[in-house]
Amino acid sequence: MNIDGYTRTCGVIGNPVEHTLSPVIHNTLAKAFAENLVYVPLRVPAGGLMAAVAGAWNLNLLGLNVTVPYKSEVIPFLQKLDPLAARIGAVNTLVRTQEGFEGYNTDMPGLYRAMCEDGVGIEGEKVLILGAGGVARAVAMLLVQKGADQVILMNRTLEKAKQIAGEVNQIAGRPLVSAMALADYTSLPEGDSFLAIQATNVGMYPKTDAAVIEDTAFYRKIHTGYDLVFNPARTKFMSLVCQEGGRAYNGLKMLLYQGVIAYELWTGVKVGQDLAGEVYAKMQRAMDL
Hints:
By secondary structure, the chain is an alpha/beta fold. Helix content is 37%, strand content 20%. It is built from 10 helices and 12 strands. The chain has helices at residues 22-32, 49-58, 83-88, 107-117, 134-145, 158-172, 216-219, 236-243, 252-267, 273-286, and strands at residues 8-14, 37-43, 63-66, 80-81, 93-96, 101-104, 126-130, 150-155, 177-181, 194-198, 222-227, 247-249. The strands form 2 sheets. It has a 6-stranded mixed β-sheet with strand order 2-1-3-5-6-4, with helices on both faces. The longest helix is centred in the last third of the chain and has 16 residues, at 252-267. 43% of the residues are buried.
């Protein structure tokens, strides 16, 4: 493309952002749609978020993605909040409006679309979530919305898991989510088979030789494992799930589809499945998969 006075700019803010694959997604889509648009990573130092959002607005940026550690911290600096983002309590996409930036969460719709494509159902499932951070809270909200039968938040600190379970149950209006200390995994009922979603950064590159739970007996209870980590492409969690006969997936398609949904919000276009597949293949090549 030729960059000129009409070129629109989007980007991702976070700290760090140097590792991001998001430019692969958005610049590929912009080229496919012949959009005069470029997407760049924008590192925002600690304490600089408010100025960064104001600066992006004043510089006429079309939209932004938001990554760690700013997904919740960015909310007070937005003009408006999409209802889903408000319920989840986290924003990963800013969309320019006439009044200011509106915050959306495309992570959870992106995860759901990825799971559907991989043939991983939620309705009626017994689900384990490993972790109790902001991502785990968002995943619990998604599971409640999509009809999971039971959700257990497993975390090293039990009180944190209990807090999130209580918050999600209050929003759901029923006691669907419970909490369990990771150390108590042996108390999971015998005979039950679970979908497990790994929502921590354990096993992420470069510390790839670890899993939150390493006892193979735990993985015999899992029929499907979904690791939200995408680098490495096969985490230790995934390997342990497969070793005990389960199916396992990583978070690369979630990254793809959260980006696709964000691009659709910014531009108003609809990204078809064939083009999404082309972008996914390019992301895999960028990771040397």
